[in-house]
Design goal:
alpha+beta; four-stranded antiparallel β-sheet; globular; iron; binds iron/sulfur cluster; 36% helix
Amino acid sequence: MTSAPASGHNLPPDPLLDAAAGIETTADFTRFRQRDDVFTRAFWDDTVRSKQSDAFFASYRMDANPRKGEGFQQKDFALRNAAWLVSDIISNRSAGDGVREGFQAPIRADTPVAPVQVAIDDPARMATEVKRIARFFGADLCGVTGFDERWIYQTQVDTRDFSESPVEMPPGMTSVIVLGHQMDQPLVQTYPSALAGAATGREYSHEAAIVMQVAAYIRNLGYNAVASMNDTGLVIPFAVKAGLGEYARNQLVITPEFGPRLRFSKIFTDLPLSHDTPKPLGVKAVCDICTRCADACPVKALPFGAPSAETQNRSAIKGVVKWTSDAEKCFGYWAKLASDCAICLRVCPFNRDFSKRRNRLWLKLALSPLRRLALWLDDQSGRAARLKPRDWWAG
Ligand code: SF4
Ligand code: SF4
């Protein structure tokens, strides 16, 4: 295995920024290899691959529908798989080259970098413009942070034989634009179900289009831009450093706008942009006294204790002090369901519609010293209850 060459324009980590983002690494920190991602392991590692995991992937085609219960009927899979369609078209278009765009490799550029470069004398103004453009194309949140090689995968895989090669980033990338994509709340409330997977699939399809369009805009300005979904690097540390939210026990970034109900994508670029800073909200103090996600996880894949550098298996990055799930247990449950599970997202007290005043008031309470009262109120409200798929279909 070869290690990755220096990519992008890497600056030494800023300890103050790391502290503000809650990022703590230890001496045995090692960049993550994409081959160890549990979804990638399901193709090459017999300790993860099973008949159920094969059926999980097959269920994304309508010729295989392994379950029949409520929320897992043909119309549920039909909606979920339709929601994934645009993402699937992008991720499959280079399959012959061993490249699964957006998942095991960045999205290939469809637009050359313009030969004439627009002069940018005010990176702060440019960052404001980029955020406006991201919203124009449909992103719900946008933040900008510095390129940080620690979170770039050490290697990426060729999906034909799962061999590894270094992640190659164009030289001189200075910034990461992080985009947030809100998942549909009523659908999320039906987790676990194949129906709920439509909330995930719709955002993958949205984000594929949005990162491609924002990257094309930047390339048309004469600067480099690499559109990225789950590929190339871990998005969570970039999202936190870009000030979009705070990392939580359920492995998600909790935002003041949408709680944990978001997917994130990213664009690596050399466009001159000013950077946002982390904005700690007080979520960690809530997670310190709340284990609702860990309690609700059917396979007990989430940790109950304090953040630590302990990992359960090779599908977790080494040397980062944080809450880390057992990805093998989690994926095993997804395979059993034949769809994604996000019970830990549904039950999280921050999973609320913050466009409503009463939920904004609850957020203030939760992020104050009265957080125990906020959790008690959440328990009393019945908010975490599962919406029956038949009730979702009934509208
Ligand atoms: S997604 Fe489901 S299985 Fe995985 S950690 Fe969350 S609740 Fe547990
Ligand atoms: S359920 Fe509780 S512990 Fe889990 S992420 Fe949400 S607030 Fe944190």
